[in-house]
Task: structure prediction
Amino acid sequence: MITGDLKCKIDKLWEEFWTGGITNPLTVIEQISFLMFSRLLDETERRNEKKAKRTKKEFKRVFKTDEQELRWANYFHLGAKEMLPLVRDRVFPHFKNAAMGNTAFGEYMKDAQLMIQKPQLLASAVTLIGDLPMDRGDTKGDLYEYLLGKLTTAGINGQFRTPRHIIRMMVEILDPKPDETVADPACGTAGFLVSVMEYLLEKYSSKEAVITHDTGEKTFPGDKLEAHQWKHISHGMFHGFDFDITMLRISVMNLLLHGIDSPTIHYQDTLSNNFPEKFPEFAEEGFDVILANPPFKGSLDYEDVHPSLLSKVKTKKTELLFVTLILKMLKLGGRSATIVPDGVLFGSSKAHVALRKALVEENQLEGVISLPSGVFKPYAGVSTAILIFTKGGKTDDVFYYDLTADGFSLDDKRVKIEDNDIPDVIERWRNKDPKKDTDKTQKFFFVSKNEIKANKYDLSINRYKEIVYEEEEFDPPKDILVRMKDLEKEILADMDELEGML
Result:
């Protein structure tokens, strides 16, 4: 739960960076992540010290005897001019070397740089981060999510932040289990993985254990999860991949702050030639669940893409290659919810048709949820849909839903509104029945495999949705009727005058 007071502190921290000359949102969040990690590292060391004192057992220290001044608690109270050179020249190099041996953050700190050049900005940032309640598990994840909500500009390569309510809908549709493995081949800030964690906590919390706060928000402890499930969730469940090192640093911090102690996040272009060789365990075993909103933008050279993907779909388009990759990364029976641009659904090229045919003929295509074009604003106005499929199996009928309202206005402002189809989508999905849901004039309906096949595997909802046009009687406004009567009188008067002249 994040209160108004905490929001004010985050807003103030953001403003400090902005006025200090650091205006790139990703850079701001990355720098804040580094400082948050410095604090968390010190707190972990302090807990280990207390445990060692209690148990009389030594542990592998992050800070050696001559490195104690590099700890957060020891430089937190320094003056601005003393703090900057210490953090820049000694704390950050320490991150890159000895400090990273036993942390999930280590792989992504090799090129870390302190971008803060103004002593007072660093001192202000350290003070504000020091005031944040990062010792509370239910708060530190929320405050980081609030921070991520400030990403208001799209990144390169078609990257943009997926709305959290859309992610949550996709997670609820797939219903991940605590003993499954979950992956995102283009994880960005790890929004999908974090949402799965939150979903599991809610689903596996007993009613009496849920804490309801004064604001109405709730904290879910996940008390119904067993010890072996907790261990799997913390150390083996979540897997993310991305080739943007800044995104990886942010995603790892996001997962750590949400209670996932050892997330498996890799610096990797999953479409590239070396992916299967570099991660053979994933290629061989596969994942149970894959949630993704992969980059739509751009084309790749054939020589950069692994041949196993091109053998299925001969294309340079990333959106087609990612769906093919996801099918490859899933284990048999594994399931996915993936956002794609509408062009994937109806494109007429050989690659488009081949991919859709593979989804329908070689796997179980379960659903297509059409999203409104404004759902990704202010980043983009592209029309998209969610493909829901299971690797292997058999496609008989495909569930369609025309989602026209997501609870927010579809302009750049994206303010909350009452119209929201998402609860209905989830309800209809859970209770779907191809024998009953046959009326194609409704928002939801089923389409048979044979009908899809007859339409050259076109998956767009407009191909199958039937629109009923109602005949309306035209009731002209009163002023028009008055004018018509006046005009009629004028015509009759003119006729009388004409007759008098003859």
Notes: Residues 153-158 have pLDDT under 50 and may be disordered. The CA atoms of residues 343 and 384 lie 8 Å apart.
